[in-house]
Amino acid sequence: MPDTPTAPVILADEPGTFPHSVLAERHPAIIRQVRDTLPYGPGQRRALDALLAECTGGVIDPLPADAHDHERWRTWGMDAYAGRSWYDVPWLWSESWFYRRLLHAVDYFAPGPWQGIDPFRPSKRAELDSPATDEELAALDDLAGRPEEEQARALLHGSLWGNRADLGFRLSAEGAEEAAAVPALVADDSERLWPLLGAPGTGTLCLVADNAGRELVPDLLLVAHLLAHGRIGRAVLHVKPHPYYVSDATTADVVDAVRRLTAAEGAAGEYGRGLWAALRDGRLALRAHPFSCSPLPYAEMPDDLRADFAAAAVTVVKGDLNYRRLVGDRYWPPTTPFAGVTGYFPGPVAALRTLKSDVITGLAPATEAALVAAEGQRWRTGGTHALIQVRT
Ligand SMILES: O=P(O)(O)OC[C@@]1(O)O[C@H](CO)[C@@H](O)[C@@H]1O
């Protein structure tokens, strides 16, 4: 691994910064949204109110000793951070902790009637059922007659820009989606990705999914296309084992998305039936590893997950949060080489991400200078720029 100097870990302790606004504004908005969209009983509403007070002004209070994942969270740093302000621990950690505590408040893990009920399901379903999704699926028919290579490129870009549709992000950046009408890639290594996905392919693609709905649908379309055209032999789709970051995809969301596709007309329906068959015969496998909801960077991944990625021809890592975990949630100088910070990854890795937080690596000096000249630092968090970075 090239010798990469380290950089300061991002905390949320500075008012006026993006991480601080996530803890001080976005998390309270998410609690209010959850409280309003499902008819939770008095106990759950009290717990949500207590969480609101704790996450904005209180300290980290460990999970109850009988929580199923108490031991896991201890190894992930819970004891070390107990008693400290949410703002004073790594931002990556406190955000992840927020979602775990939210699930506790709504009895997601508690035996009883609310066990396994996704608090974010109403917003995920609304997005999947929206006319915008219909339009995107209908547009596939125009693509169907094009040369295969052109289709593959279009689907890769669909998967990349699908990351702009992020329900949690919309709570605090209304309008970002519309503002980004012109795709603006700040780094594009896609020419190094295609040889890893070249026909006749027998290799495995690992795709580490991010959001459900309008991101997961194009991710699945890309996988369906690569399988159907023999560019890969098999795909492994990593999803979250439980609801996370509002819109992150779980197995239930994959099932919803595949059913949505199979019910569609034309090319979308064909892709849907291909995915259904691939799930049934094992060419498309799902993983929901606990580490996918961990508050730690991928550099600290456990051995079984490492082995999964090591066996892939390439691992494609989707979205902003996965990028933060891939390169480390640090204030890297933007020109820090991507290959250096991902040198630990056990095989070729590609990041497909729209930029929604401060972390960035691998920019050419001229690109950084042009972005700063045009936008100050807004390009880092506005969701209007994207990147494709590859380390072979
Ligand atoms: O991973 P995703 O869905 O692309 O984005 C997740 C996100 O919306 O949440 C975090 C702030 O809460 C940021 O990392 C990012 O803006």
TrEMBL record:
Reported cofactor(s): Mn(2+)
Protein name as annotated: Uncharacterized protein DUF89
Domain (Damage-control phosphatase ARMT1-like metal-binding): residue spans on this chain: 23-366
Superkingdom classification of source: Bacteria
Similarity remark: Belongs to the damage-control phosphatase family. Sugar phosphate phosphatase III subfamily.
Signal peptide residues on this chain, from the entry's feature table: none
One Pfam short name: ARMT1-like_dom
Keywords: Hydrolase, Manganese, Metal-binding
